[in-house]
Amino acid sequence: MSQALKSHRKLYTKLRNMNAKYLIPLVLLGMWNCKQQNEKSVPDPISIDIEKPPKKSLEMERVAQYLGISPSDSVDFETQFHCWTIDENKNLDSVNISEAINLFKKITKTGKSNVYPIFGTDINNEVMIIMSNKGFGGNIRGTFLIDKNTLEIKKVEFDHVAESDGYGAAITLSDFENQFVGTKVNFATNTFGLKQNGKIAIPGSKIVDGISGATITSTLTVEMINDNLKKYEVFFQ
C-alpha cells in the first residue's frame, strides 16, 4: 500500500471518529427534546373532589337501629326522622335531628336532663322515648319503643351508672327487661306494678317481678317508668 493511501485512510478514520464524538451528544439532545415535547403534550390529570357523606355519630346509629332504620352511606337517612322534645312541664316541641341527638348524648352521658327527646320515623308508627331517674348507686335510664296507634310497648332497654353487680345492675338483663314488653300504656293509672319478696310493693295494671336483693333499684325503676309514661301522655294523645 502506498504512503499516500495510508495517509488518506488515517484522515478518513479521524474525521469519522470526530463525527461520532459530536453526533452522540446531538442524538441525546434530540431524544431529550422529544421527551419534553411528549410530556408537554400529555394533559395534566383532572382532580375531582367527591363529597363524602357526613359521618354518622354512634348515638345516631344507635337511635336508627332502635327504630328499625338501616343506616346507609348512599341514603340520607336523617331525613327519615321526626323528632320532638318534652320537658318536665309536659311542653312539647318539634325539633331537628341534631338537637334531639345532642339531648340523647347528654342523657346517655350524665343520666340527667330537664328535657327529653322523642324519635319517630317515616317507616312505621313506632317512637323511641327516653327516661331517667336516680337509682341506688347512680342514675338509671330507660329506652322504650312504643307503637303510637296501639300504645303497645315493643322494646325496652335499661342502663345504669353505678348499680351493684349481681343486684341492681340486673335491670339490664333481658329477663327483667322483657317483663315490660307487650304491655299497653295506661295513662289513667300505673302501667306497671311491682312484686317484691312475694308482696305487691307498687300497684299497677301489669305486675312485674322485682330483682332479688335489689328492692330499691327495682322500686325506683318501676316508679321511673310509671311517672315518665304519664308525662308522655300529651304526645301520644
From TrEMBL:
GO terms for cellular component: membrane. InterPro entries: FMN-bd. It comes from the Bacteria. Pfam families: FMN_bind. Residues 135-232 form the FMN-binding domain. GO terms for molecular function: FMN binding. This is FMN-binding protein. It comes from Flagellimonas lutimaris. The lineage of its organism: Bacteria, Pseudomonadati, Bacteroidota, Flavobacteriia, Flavobacteriales.
